[in-house]
Specification:
The protein is an all-alpha fold. The protein has a domain of about 90 residues. Helix content is about 55%, strand content about 0%. The longest helix is centred in the C-terminal third of the chain and has 24 residues. The N and C termini lie far apart (about 90 Å). About 5% of the residues have low confidence.
Length: about 180
């Protein structure tokens, strides 16, 4: 077998590329003229000034976008809680492959989410991520609690005294008799 080759094409034109100037000489598309004037006013894009220095307004705008992205990542598990709760409700309390797979998904995904939290929020450096991370962990723990409740309702968790009878130490009788005891 021949080794597979992967190809990638970079469609972003750099300023020193020969097609960059040609593309900027073309008339703008319908509806894009307003976007280009806004970009020129704020210094975004390649035409409005130097991209190497950012103004304080641009830094604040970028920080606000990062905070909004962090909050959207933090509230992501909340959307999945409702979806999985509905799926667990529809699967019933019987033990079958669908209900077990849905319940195991509700147990394992929050654990994976909490363990991969640094990778989730890794691209958002430079902003305060303490509150979004706390919300993220709280929603994942709530999702985990919903999965534990479903396991309990399916009787998969040892919550009754009958589940622990295997760990009871039984007394061994030292003597046995064939004569039944008499009541005094």
């Amino acid at each position: 077998m021949a080794p597979q080759q992967s190809f990638s094409i970079d469609l972003v034109l750099k300023e020193n590329h020969k097609g960059y100037d040609l593309l900027h000489k073309c008339p703008p598309l319908v509806g894009m003229k307003g976007v280009q004037t806004v970009e020129r006013q704020h210094g975004v894009g390649g035409t409005g000034g130097s991209n190497t220095t950012m103004t304080q307004q641009q830094k604040n705008l970028l920080a606000q976008k990062k905070k909004n992205k962090a909050m959207s990542l933090a509230t992501g598990p909340g959307q999945q809680i409702l979806m999985n709760a509905f799926m667990m409700y529809m699967s019933g309390k019987q033990l079958n492959i669908f209900s077990i797979s849905v319940t195991s998904m509700a147990i394992l995904n929050p654990i994976r989410g909490i363990l991969s939290m640094e990778q989730t929020f890794g691209a958002l450096e430079g902003v305060d991520l303490q509150v979004p991370k706390l919300i993220f962990v709280g929603l994942n723990l709530a999702w985990f609690a919903v999965g534990l409740y479903k396991m309990s309702s399916m009787r998969l968790l040892p919550t009754t005294s009958a589940d622990w009878t295997g760990s009871i130490v039984w007394k061994e009788m030292m003597e046995t008799s064939s004569i039944p005891p008499t009541g005094f």
